[in-house]
């Protein structure tokens, strides 16, 4: 067995690690190439012109998912190797952060900007998706989640509860009036979801009036919903902290509609000794706690 070089995160270590993984891949491809000779990956396709195209065969298409998995694993290994630094004064590495659309667009950018000012050698990969990224298989290193983590292999910190409320722009209310009750609300142009999700089903148990058919505008993008509200298109649901953003929003019927999201920041336990990941985890956790605990106007000034 060969000696594995130190891959603490320095440039030399990353280069050595890259050579090791490339060597593994090349040996694997050479070995598997023997069996693939009888099953070519590409077939020539004649066209009407002089050029001949190459088309993927069934073998190639069947191997695609495995090749993508290999690439994802290699990227995860390289990212993890770059994250382990022994010197806190020169923390550097690549950290992949997953968050929902709204959190990733509205909340995390000022936190990441401040982090990069103090630690410019840290690279952040920001993945925006309402789908829960699989931290156990390292689709991300750190995730901001609106559901309570259940896996034992995760390090989790609860940062608070984000309140959701009904909001509209002042321009919309000036044109269409302010609803006084839930019956008035249903007479307005409402903005909401398109596809049903477990979160939506849970919310509908408490607010059955706000079903899919009640919405004049439907989208599963929370960012699109927020910007429709800001544009004066109608009344919709957004995080209360965002009401004092670039376009002031007025909250409506708080006694009728109020919904809370438990918010967590989670990380795989294998990264507990990574100074880089631990730093990013702590910075994001503190920033999210500040965001939840204060008004958006104050949040923007601090950013």
TrEMBL record:
Q: Could you tell me the Gene Ontology terms of the biological process aspect for this record?
A: DNA-templated transcription
Q: What is this protein called?
A: Transcriptional regulator lysR family
Name of a matching Pfam family: LysR_substrate
**Where would I find the LysR substrate-binding domain in this sequence?**
91-286
Q: Name one GO molecular function term.
A: sequence-specific DNA binding
Native source organism of the sequence: Klebsiella michiganensis
Family, similarity comment: Belongs to the LysR transcriptional regulatory family.
Positions the record marks as coiled coil are: none
């Amino acid at each position: 067995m060969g000696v594995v070089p130190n891959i603490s995160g320095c440039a030399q270590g990353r280069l050595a690690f890259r050579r090791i993984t490339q060597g593994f891949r090349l040996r694997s491809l050479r070995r598997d190439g023997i069996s693939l000779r009888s099953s070519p990956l590409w077939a020539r396709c004649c066209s009407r012109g002089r050029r001949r195209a190459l088309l993927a065969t069934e073998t190639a298409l069947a191997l695609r998912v495995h090749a993508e998995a290999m690439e994802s694993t290699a990227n995860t290994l390289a990212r993890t190797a770059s994250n382990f630094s022994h010197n806190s004064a020169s923390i550097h590495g690549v950290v992949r952060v997953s968050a929902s659309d709204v959190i990733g667009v509205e909340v995390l950018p000022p936190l990441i900007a401040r982090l990069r000012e103090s630690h410019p050698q840290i690279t952040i990969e920001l993945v925006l998706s309402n789908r829960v990224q699989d931290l156990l298989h390292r689709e991300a290193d750190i995730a901001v989640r609106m559901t309570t983590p259940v896996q034992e292999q995760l390090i989790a910190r609860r940062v608070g509860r984000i309140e959701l409320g009904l909001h509209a722009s002042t321009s919309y209310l000036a044109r269409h009036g302010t609803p006084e009750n839930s019956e008035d609300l249903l007479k307005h142009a409402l903005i909401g979801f398109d596809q049903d999700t477990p979160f939506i089903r849970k919310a509908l148990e408490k607010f059955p009036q706000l079903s899919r058919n009640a919405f004049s505008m439907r989208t599963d993008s929370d960012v699109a919903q927020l910007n429709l509200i800001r544009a004066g298109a109608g009344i919709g649901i957004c995080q209360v902290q965002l009401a004092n953003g670039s376009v002031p929003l007025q909250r409506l019927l708080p006694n009728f509609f109020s919904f809370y999201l438990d918010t967590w920041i989670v990380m795989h336990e294998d990264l507990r000794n990574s100074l880089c990941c631990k730093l990013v985890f702590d910075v994001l956790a503190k920033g999210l706690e500040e965001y939840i605990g204060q008004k958006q106007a104050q949040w923007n000034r601090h950013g």
